[in-house]
Amino acid sequence: MTLGIARAVTVPSTGRGTVAAPPTARGTVPPSSAALPPPPSPDAVPAIPPPDDPARIRATIARCPLFAALPINAIEDLTARVVIRKVNAGSAVVAQDEPGDAMFLIMVGRIKVVIFGESGREVTLSLLRAGDSFGEMSLFDQAPRSAHCLALEAAVLLVLSREDLMKHVQAHPRTAVNMLGEMARRLRRADETIAQLALCDVNERLIHRLVGLAREEGASKPDGLVINKRPTQQELANMVGSCRETISRAFNQLARDGLIIPRGRALVITPALIEKAERRRAA
Predict the structure, then answer these.
(1) Nearest to 99 by CA among 40, 131, 145, 154
(2) Element (H, E) at 128
(3) What residues contact 217, with CB distance under 8 A and at least 6 apart?
(4) Hey, which of 65, 68, 81, 139 would disulfide with 162, CB 3.0 to 4.6 Å?
(5) Among the listed residues 229, 85, 100, the one whose alpha carbon sits nearest the alpha carbon of residue 158
(6) pLDDT digits (tens, 9 = 90+) for 112-163
(7) Hey, what domains does the chain have and what are their CATH numbers?
């Protein structure tokens, strides 16, 4: 059915092969179709600004932990320095061991940080989302990239070169303090991961990773935190340093115990599982 302005119909008084318009009630006047605006589509959504919109770039920079709470003049300076880069799903943004001369902020999409063993085994170090950044380390120590960064889906990135970052930091020292704080948080997370690999079995590591994913990207619902795009069992295995078969058994047991609820492509992490992870962390 086509919505919009109806075509005007000329009704002849007589004549073979013509169709007369239906009669109207006495005393009423057919409304002018030109005066009727088309009804709104039920699927209509607010227009999203294009990626190169300066306001959207500023918003992306401001939500990044590296640049959080910076004064507006510092945000404006960064906005003028970044370059937009679009990547396709599955593309490599950076490759391990290559020189690093820029850092990246994610405007749209998700990026997976991984390393590969000699046998081709993949270990996922982190999953990054809109507002996250990556590639900073090489800008400071000038060492090669420490991992591969792959686009899980079509992504839009803001690229900041080493030269522009250094000029910005010289003019806005607060950014350097922010970066030190973010590096410290990442080091703490790395310590936690190392401790889990050394001290926890696969079941415990899986529980901690599921709860971590739920807190990072889950939506709060009455029955728990819902991960809308649940990772595959192979992806979970790559995250916790195990194999898919072992993860499959552990995952299915959690489902049978009612601690997780698979729901189509989503996954519900129940409060009981979150509480269980907290108790193990405290112990």
Answers:
(1) 145
(2) strand 122-128
(3) 129, 227, 228, 229
(4) 139
(5) 85
(6) 999 998 888 889 999 999 999 999 999 988 899 999 999 999 999 999 999 9
(7) 54-196 (2.60.120.10), 200-282 (1.10.10.10)
